[in-house]
Amino acid sequence: MNVLHMLRNKTNKNDESVFRITLVISALVAGAISLFIGLRQSVWFDEAYSIIVAKRSITDIMSLSAIDVHPPTYYLLLKGWAELFGWSELALRSFSVLALVATIAVAGLLVKKMFGPRIAVVTLLVMMIAPLLLRYGFEIRMYALAMLIGIAATYALVSAVQFKGKEATRWKIAYVVLVALGMYTLYYLALLWLAHLAWIVYLHVAHKGTVANVWRWVLLYAASFVLFMPQIPNVIQQFTNGALAPIGQPLDLQNLIGIASFNTVYQPLWMLSMIASVVVLLAIGTVGYLVNRAFKLTSKRDELVLLAMYIGVPIVILLLISLFKSMYVERYLVDVAIGLLMLVGVSLGIVITDKSKRVRRVRIALSSVVFVSLGFGVLQLLAVGNYNFQRLETPTVKQLASSLADCATLPVVAEGPYTAIELDYYIGDSCDIYFVSEGAELGGGYAPLSRSPLRVGNLDEVPFNAFTYVTYNKDDVTTSRFTNTSETTFGKLSKLRFSAE
């Protein structure tokens, strides 16, 4: 029996079987697509930093994370994973992909718990081809892990509200632990915890205190905070040491619409073609209609409110923060983007399974807009890969590194610590990577190279008569001692050969 037949049939004993099959297929297909795209990409700075930190001792990992902007959990888990499966790109990306697969599976189970297996099937199909999830499902960073912790905590939250007695207590304990673990993984998960608290307040008000006692939940958050307290000194240091990268943008109207464009056609607003713009506008209008219609049709209003708050509350908070500080980057909302996708999937499922006199063609049109826009995004993701929308470049370190087979005899000098860290994954085990930096003390993402003996103050101080210079800024290279003898360009990254005059 196919999925469409299950959705049309009001009572069918095979609903659970179809759900289970869809759950497995959707999670595995999403993982396979994400891994396929990921293995075609070059490791870039953030990923190279994750690897260089994970290769250090546990003591060093704790020290380095304390002066960077992210907590240590992901680096510790990545280290353990790599010690078991190796440091290849396949192994490293697989860790994130596994978290993506688990995230979609847990999300499917959560939707089934709240809305039943039929709606869950539609939602799984939506999440299976969600470009933003697929993009950060292969990133060697903590985003996929944060998604998994966030959705697992949401499952625990819903279970704790639904159950009573000892069963509810067990789920509350799980929730407390997951909230603390989330904060040890990605600080932006605090936005999701605030969304959860907002939902608890909503339940308390909507049901006059019969469903959720707000103060009891506040005590649970306090318990999570106690578990997180050892990290507080590091948090203070991280947010006052200037290590935050200056890439944040205000969540203005353009970036607000950009959230929709990234989650559909996987492009920021300023890059949209006319066709892509039409697709995004259709998707926004369709989703707005679906959500509005779903609220009118469903008896599970509380559950639908949770999904709306999952994505809505973090966006509202970032809008308010943007009045004082620019903190929006598309990847920083990945951990809550799955809430938007669940909201879309559930709303679509509710509408297309409605048995009122709605015209069948309308349902087909609504489904087509959703899946076509997501499919457009997957094709776009296949085309651009891990394009960096802040630096406006496609990482090409892998391609350049493959041309440095002579690095053992012809030394490599990077233009700075950023480029040196990018090169480290590909050639760091076989060659020394010298780099230019005026200061020896380095912090933030450059901390692993602080006081490095491979640092040179400027290009003229390079202690060799011939070397390969790797730079993103070939037109700004100045030296009075060396002559450029050859040049090869890989995207925005260049390899220059220098020799003494």
List the helices and strands and how they pair.
Layout: H1 3-8, H2 15-38, H3 45-54, H4 58-66, H5 73-85, H6 89-115, H7 117-128, H8 131-137, H9 143-162, H10 165-183, H11 189-206, H12 214-228, H13 232-238, H14 253-264, H15 274-297, H16 301-321, H17 334-352, H18 360-384, H19 397-401, E1 412-414, H20 417-427, E2 433-436, E3 455-456, E4 466-471, E5 482-490, E6 493-500
Parallel strand pairs: 1-2, 1-4, 2-3
Antiparallel strand pairs: 4-6, 5-6
Helix pairs in contact: 2-6, 2-7, 2-8, 3-5, 3-20, 6-7, 6-8, 6-9, 7-17, 8-18, 9-10, 9-11, 9-17, 10-12, 11-16, 15-17, 15-18, 16-17, 17-18
What is the CA-CA span between the terminal residues?
Answer: 76 Å
Low-confidence stretches: 1-9
Q: How many domains would you count in the coordinates?
A: 2
Shape: globular
Indicate the radius of gyration in whole angstroms. Answer: 25 Å
Helix-strand sequence: HHHHHHHHHHHHHHHHHHHEHEEEEE
What does the average pLDDT come to? 91
Find the count of extended strands (DSSP E, 2+ residues): 6
Largest sheet data:
6 strands, mixed
The number of helical elements comes to: 20
- Helix percentage range: 55-70%
What spatial order of strands do you see in the largest sheet?
3-2-1-4-6-5
| Class computed from helices, strands and strand pairing | alpha/beta
Beta-strand share of residues: 5-15%
